[in-house]
């Protein structure tokens, strides 16, 4: 069994395969250790933005409770390593190794996995756990190659240049003029540390993010003592239900994610019987109420009213991934920090000396790209390889008109190949929750195939076509449906605002993650493995 990727996807898949009795597991990971995005993202202030008690996987299995409500990257990376040790996944792991090819050999019923180290690994089963945030993205700004100063991407932070470490103290920037492009989730976390030490910091903004209260706090030891078996699963499902719009008796997490849902519930409960407001209008009112809170918070924390106005987001809450931070907005009160708002247009061009916006050149010593990862590009491009299935058909060709799978996890013509992906699968703000549900499902299928001595297991053409029809029929137009589609500003949720004719077919399951997870569970319990063909 080969798992491609050593992030949370590969780790959770490995753990669930171990639970199912699978012993021969090899994880191939391009980083130097487990952790995935948390191996690469070591910029100052890097922190999970979903509560750590929900976000960090397999906490109960490792008998571990995070130190804070929102863990920093170092703790998450350590936890990833602990998962690897606990489930004996280091044995057979290939680090600093990239998959360059994947081809099905029908005569032997094996996948041939090629790597950049000259390996040709024969694997009975392969699961692609490459992750959605895998390939760093640079902006397509004119002249980006002409800059003569220093540059780096936030996922490859250069502490040799900045000094300091993940906890801050970037002492080498005291005489440097620094520009950071982007005001998304990454910049929200690292800008306060840059503002503390840089001689001059220019923050280039295309569209402001929503910046809600972080409110981090140490874990309460008494609360830890009160936890009972099954606590993490209960918490994950409670959070997922609330962010899916399903009222719960208790809000176990009580943070910015669930607050909006609470406002939606409030709108429904207080709607007058004779009200003519539609569900869509109630959603809009709740969204407006939450966004007004966020805009008012900007006024409270930013002293210059002109700067404050430019930092206020005017769009639906889930047009962009919400962010949470208590230091970002006050950073703009520092005399050495300047917001360069581009009115939604982005930087005009980059020169040898700096960046140009609206005819003004800002000369800097260093440009930091806080521009995230590729999301809207093809799956095979982001993976770095293509999968060649039966009869020499490439996965990229099979998906040319849009993703084609059963449950988002396997395609016809690609036997013994599994995918851990959001396309045609579930979507939840707590991505590791989806990964665990996927890992459990795939491990169940693989263990069954091994127990029955099956040579191959493959999605049928009929089941694949039916699932594609289901995805298109239920498509909601955005990852969070009515809260995240429609008239949104450019971002990775909507393919940077560009029309995508394949969006409906490649979208997550439109019935919502709760319904999707229930569907998978019932499918397993039914025992018929409908849509799969097992061959001896």
The oligomeric state is: single chain
- Catalogue the unreliable spans: 477-485
Quickly give the CATH architecture of the domain at 2-135 and 376-535.
Answer: 3-Layer(bba) Sandwich
Q: How many strands, what sense, and barrel or not for the largest sheet? A: 5 strands, parallel
Label the structural class. alpha/beta
CATH superfamily assignment of the domain at 2-135 and 376-535? FAD/NAD(P)-binding domain
Quote the CATH topology of the domain at 2-135 and 376-535. Answer: FAD/NAD(P)-binding domain
Tally of DSSP helical segments:
18
Describe the structure.
The chain is α/β, with parallel strands linked by helices. The protein has a domain of 294 residues: FAD/NAD(P)-binding domain. The chain is 33% helix and 14% strand. The strands form six sheets. It has a five-stranded parallel sheet, with helices on one face. Strands 2-1-6-18 form a four-stranded parallel sheet, with helices on one face. Strand 8, helix 7 and strand 9 form a beta-alpha-beta unit. Helix 1 packs parallel to helix 15.
Key terms:
536 residues, alpha/beta, FAD/NAD(P)-binding domain, five-stranded parallel β-sheet, four-stranded parallel β-sheet
Overview in brief:
This protein is an alpha/beta fold and 536 residues long. Helices cover 33% and strands 14% of the residues. A hairpin with a 4-residue loop joins β4 (110-115) and β5 (120-123).
Topology overview:
Elements: E1 2-4, H1 8-19, E2 26-28, H2 37-40, H3 52-55, H4 59-62, H5 73-86, E3 99-105, E4 110-115, E5 120-123, E6 126-128, E7 150-153, H6 159-162, E8 177-181, H7 185-197, E9 200-205, E10 211-212, H8 221-226, H9 231-243, H10 256-269, H11 279-301, H12 305-310, E11 323-324, E12 337-341, E13 349-350, E14 354-357, E15 360-363, E16 366-369, H13 379-383, E17 387-388, H14 395-398, E18 417-419, H15 431-451, E19 456-459, H16 461-474, H17 503-506, H18 513-526, E20 532-535
Parallel strand pairs: 1-2, 1-6, 3-17, 6-18, 7-16, 8-9, 8-16, 9-12, 10-11
Antiparallel strand pairs: 3-4, 4-5, 13-14, 14-15, 19-20
Helix pairs in contact: 1-15, 10-11, 15-18
């Amino acid at each position: 069994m080969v798992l491609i990727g050593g992030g949370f996807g590969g780790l959770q898949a490995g753990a669930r395969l171990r639970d199912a009795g699978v012993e021969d597991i090899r994880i191939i990971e391009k980083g130097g250790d487990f952790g995935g995005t948390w191996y690469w993202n070591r910029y100052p202030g890097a922190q999970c933005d979903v509560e750590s008690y929900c976000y960090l996987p397999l906490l109960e299995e490792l008998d571990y409770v995070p130190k804070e409500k929102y863990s920093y990257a170092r703790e998450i990376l350590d936890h990833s390593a602990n998962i690897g040790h606990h489930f004996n996944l280091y044995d057979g792991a290939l680090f600093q190794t990239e998959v360059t090819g994947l081809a099905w050999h029908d005569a032997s019923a094996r996948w041939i996995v090629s790597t950049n180290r000259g390996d040709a690994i024969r694997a009975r089963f392969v699961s692609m756990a490459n992750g959605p945030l895998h390939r760093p993205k640079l902006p397509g700004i004119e002249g980006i190659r002409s800059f003569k100063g220093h540059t780096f991407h936030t996922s490859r932070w250069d502490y040799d240049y900045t000094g300091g470490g993940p906890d801050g103290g970037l002492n080498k920037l005291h005489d440097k003029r620094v520009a950071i492009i982007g005001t998304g989730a990454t910049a929200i976390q690292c800008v306060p540390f840059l503002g503390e030490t840089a001689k001059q910091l220019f923050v280039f903004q295309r569209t402001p993010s929503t910046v809600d209260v972080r409110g981090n706090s140490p874990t309460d030891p008494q609360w830890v003592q009160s936890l009972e078996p099954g606590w993490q699963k209960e918490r994950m499902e409670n959070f997922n239900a609330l962010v899916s719009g399903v009222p719960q008796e208790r809000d176990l997490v009580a943070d910015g994610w669930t607050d909006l849902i609470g406002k939606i519930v409030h709108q429904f409960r207080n709607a007058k019987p004779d009200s003519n407001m539609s569900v869509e209008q109630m959603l809009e009112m709740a969204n407006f109420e939450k966004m007004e809170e966020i805009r008012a918070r900007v006024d409270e924390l930013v002293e210059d009213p002109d700067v404050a106005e430019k930092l206020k987001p005017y769009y639906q809450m889930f047009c962009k991934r919400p962010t949470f931070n208590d230091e970002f907005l006050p950073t703009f009160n520092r005399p050495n920090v300047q917001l360069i708002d581009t009115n939604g247009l982005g930087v005009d061009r980059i020169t040898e000396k700096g960046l140009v916006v609206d005819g003004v050149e800002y000369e800097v010593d260093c440009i930091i790209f806080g521009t995230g990862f590729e999301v809207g590009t093809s799956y095979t491009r982001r993976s770095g390889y293509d999968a060649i299935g039966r009869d020499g058909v490439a996965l990229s060709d099979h998906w040319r008109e849009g993703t084609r799978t059963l449950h988002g996890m396997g395609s016809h013509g690609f036997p013994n190949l599994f995918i851990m992906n959001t396309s045609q699968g579930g979507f939840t703000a707590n991505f590791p929750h989806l990964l665990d549900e996927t890992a459990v499902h795939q491990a169940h299928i693989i263990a069954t195939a091994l127990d029955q001595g099956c040579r191959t297991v493959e999605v049928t053409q009929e089941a694949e076509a039916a699932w594609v029809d289901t995805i298109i029929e239920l498509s909601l137009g955005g990852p969070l449906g009515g809260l995240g589609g429609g008239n949104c500003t450019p971002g990775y949720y909507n393919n940077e605002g560009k029309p995508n004719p394949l969006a409906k077919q490649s979208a997550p399951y439109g019935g919502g993650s709760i319904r999707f997870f229930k569907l998978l569970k019932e499918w397993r319990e039914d025992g018929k493995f409908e849509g799969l063909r097992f061959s001896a």
